[in-house]
Amino acid sequence: MSKVLIIGGGGREHALAWKAAQSPRVECVYVAPGNAGTAREPRTVNVDIPAEHVDELVRLAETERIDLTIVGPEMPLVLGVVDRFKAAGLRCFGPTQAAARLEGSKAYTKEFLARHRIPTAASRTFTRETFDRTYVQSHRTPIVVKASGLAAGKGVVIADDAAVAIGCAEAMFAGKFGDAGREVVIEQFLEGEEASFIVMADGRHILPLATSQDHKRRDDGDRGPNTGGMGAYSPAPVITPAIHARIMREVIEPTILGLAAEGTPYTGFLYAGVMIAPDGTPNVLEFNCRFGDPETQPIMARLRSDLTVLCDAALDGRLDRVDVEWDTRAALGVVMAAGGYPDAYTKGDVISGLDQAAALPGKVFHAGTLLRGNEVVTNGGRVLCAVGLGDSVKSARDDAYRLVDAIRWPGAQFRRDIGHRAIGRG
Ligand code: AMP
Known about the structure:
By secondary structure, the protein is an alpha+beta fold. Helix content is 30%, strand content 29%. The strands form five sheets. The protein has a five-stranded parallel β-sheet with strand order 3-2-1-4-5. It has a five-stranded antiparallel β-sheet with strand order 12-13-16-20-17. Helix 1 runs parallel beside helix 11. The protein is globular and about 60 Å long. The structure holds adenosine monophosphate (AMP). Adenosine monophosphate binds at residues 121, 144, 146, 156, 158, 187, 189-190, 194, 216, 273, 285-286.
């Protein structure tokens, strides 16, 4: 029997911990720091260590004799948590610091994509010293301005005119996102339909996970400010078998092979955000070096195979020899967020209705929640993700909204139309 550690405390980590705890070979799942949801799962315990405190995490894994660690968020990966675990002789599923640059530096990634002829928007990278306003002015609008480093999902601006784009770039150089804005990528705006594509990799082999799509805008009709994600579903009909094949051949395979050839092999979850052009070309918008949140929640709800077996196979370089089994039903997750999110929001509101929801079909994953005595209170922008399963995306959605309708707290906000694109396709 083995012990598993999940690093992180959001909805993605609740879903990973919930899935790992179902494995017959797992005795206990530790989550650092976890949330109220993981605190209440059977065979699961929270440990009060923030995800970025790498030294303490290594110590925990050593003293508790953790057999397998799975890293949720990007920050510890970019800080080198996997390298540190490896150096201590511990098994940790995720990319090394060098491989995690794929998310940690958009400037590096744009050069990598160009080197390997992987389709992406035309772009140039500038520093304060090299910034060329005439490059921006000579571009068709809208134009996209991106801080190169990690900016908690806020470092991308789609500017409708050159003056706004220049203002954004200069604010980034001036320190708006700290070190993350020292380099700024300016790129062409791409038309098309956005899709996420998530795989597991073991340095050489690739295991594509079930397809999914998320909704990044806060409000119904895909309007309002960008967020970390207000809902997601799996499978995603936009990823037809033909598009699936093109993303694998033109994006994922050259990326994994290219990283290996450059001496930085990639092991871990790899998330490609792609814009499917009208002619079917899968242009890379970004890479994330971790699983998506909220995509993890519906994808884990559909995973039939043992997550820990898949991670172990990846750590041993034998992902080509495992089979992965999926629930044939669709899964759809609706994020419930605190009022005000993605701007300032309140914390500490008591959530009611969780027990009623637990009696319904589906699963409520926690994100920004905290146990206060016997009560569950809000503790973040994205608070919960209610996941339904069904024979179609529409019936999965109906189950998800039955969960949502059972749950209440002051100011809770959520979209009513998660899955509308997939459902609209019929
Ligand atoms: P990123 O973090 O680079 O994925 O950017 C965040 C979001 O901005 C993406 O999910 C897209 O919706 C949008 N975006 C980024 N780059 C582009 C682009 N070149 N063209 C159109 N939309 C983009």
